[in-house]
């Protein structure tokens, strides 16, 4: 569960290592930009990983 949701931003906290999976709910078809996802240390602000933006097409 996210600890914060603000518009398209969702914040999750974890102490586990491993893969992260996130999902989107389809409301309507079209072409959309998938925003960057990143892993950031909450205390230092250091970013450990970031994904590129991508285009998502829902038919």
Summarize the structure.
With 59 residues, this protein is an all-beta fold. The protein contains no helices and six strands.
List the helices and strands and how they pair.
Layout: E1 4-6, E2 9-11, E3 30-34, E4 38-40, E5 47-50, E6 54-58
Antiparallel strand pairs: 1-2, 3-6, 4-5
Q: What's the count of strands?
A: 6
Return the string of H and E elements.
Answer: EEEEEE
Share of residues in strands:
35-45%
Distance between the termini: 28 Å
Task: Provide the low-confidence segments as ranges.
Answer: none
Structural classification: mainly beta
What is the count of distinct domains? 1
Q: How does the major sheet shape up?
A: 2 strands, antiparallel
| Individual helix count | 0
Major sheet strand order: 1-2
| Silhouette | elongated
Radius of gyration: 13 Å
Helix content: under 10%
How does this model look, in words?
The chain is mainly beta. The protein has one domain. Helix content is 0%, strand content 39%. The chain contains no helices and 6 strands. The protein has strands at 4-6, 9-11, 30-34, 38-40, 47-50, 54-58. Strands 1-2 form a two-stranded antiparallel ribbon. A two-stranded antiparallel ribbon has the order 3-6. The chain has a two-stranded antiparallel sheet with strand order 4-5. The radius of gyration is 13 Å and the shape is elongated. The chain starts with a strand and ends with a strand.
Task: Give keywords.
single chain; 59 residues; mainly beta; two-stranded antiparallel ribbon; two-stranded antiparallel sheet
